[in-house]
Design goal:
By secondary structure, the chain is of the alpha+beta class.
Length: 154
């Protein structure tokens, strides 16, 4: 059975013992807008940060290792928690992340799929990849190698 309508929102929940620095990074450094959220009192804290669009990327370990190689990033053992955020300027995002004290995992790199990617070790154990699109989705889909999995498997 399939839902009649697809889900309306993707929400990643990042559980962290260092709430303040995690919130500072996503809200203050990256500029995500905070919306009202319910919590009780004391240590019960939550922040919901809004982003314009979300996608779910499902990848095999081989694909993840290939992306690590393209980005000149070390490959981790086993699955990692990673967020990829599209930004207008990867260099500016990387500089902001470094200035806020985050470790650079992979410097800004132009990829063969026409993005500029850079990766930092974000708060709460999540890796954060910043990517800047250099061409439109329409331009990209006309190039070799860009298709859906359903078409690739035919």
């Amino acid at each position: 059975m399939t839902l009649q309508q697809p889900p309306k929102q993707l929400r990643l929940i990042i559980e962290t013992d260092d709430f303040d620095s995690t919130l500072h990074f996503y809200r203050d450094v990256l500029g995500l807008t905070e919306q009202p959220a319910f919590a009780t009192d004391g240590e019960d804290r939550v922040a919901i940060l809004n982003i314009a669009a979300a996608t779910i990327e499902i990848a095999t370990p081989t694909h993840v290792r290939n992306i690590d190689a393209i980005e000149n990033a070390p490959s981790a053992e086993g699955p990692t928690l990673r967020i990829a955020l599209e930004v207008d300027d990867t260099e500016v995002a990387m500089t902001s992340a470094k200035e806020s004290g985050l470790e650079v995992i992979a410097p800004s790199t132009r990829t063969p799929f026409e993005t500029i990617n850079g990766r930092v070790q974000g708060p709460a154990g999540w890796q954060v990849t910043f990517f800047q699109e250099l061409e439109t989705l329409q331009e990209r889909t006309s190039r070799e190698g860009f298709t859906t999995d359903a078409h690739r498997r035919r």
